Amino acid sequence: MMSDTERAEGWRRLQIVIADYETRPFVWGTADCLCFAADAVRAFTGLDSLGDHRNRYTSRLGAAERLRTFGYRRLEDLVTAQAQKAGFKQIPSGLAAVGDIGLTMDQTVCVRVPTGFLARREQRMSISSTAQKAWSVN
After folding, report:
1. Helix 4-23 crosses helix 33-45 at what angle (to 10 degrees)?
2. CA dihedral 83, 88, 93, 99 (to 10 degrees)
3. Measured over all CA atoms, what is the biggest interatomic distance in the chain, rounded to whole angstroms?
4. Each residue's pLDDT tens digit, 58-78
5. How far from 80 is each of 54, 91, 103, 124, 131, CA to CA, in Å?
6. Is the pTM of this model over 0.85?
């Protein structure tokens, strides 16, 4: 379990990741919702949970093909598998702390921030008050 100091340091690093994504255009495989969440996890834990998938697709279709290649039907299946592999526990989204990851109803991977769940979408960064699922990176 992270100490308050470690979580505060993780939040500081996450703010740098957020600022970076707010200035970058959406790009499949390098600056999409999955990459944003993976970079957030790395800011908090040092773990690159996306290593095998980063820079391996360049479109929505390519992302879907990549999922199928690895035996996943949906993005949720990949996120669940990667979270389990990393040892992250699934939790009720209402219990998510800053830095935890989530999944919205429309299958967008997001990150818990103080004001809600932040996601990188094609048009912009967006905040949601809740997530369908969540995993603790603690």
Report:
1. 150
2. -100
3. 41
4. 999 999 999 999 999 999 999
5. 17, 12, 10, 25, 14
6. yes
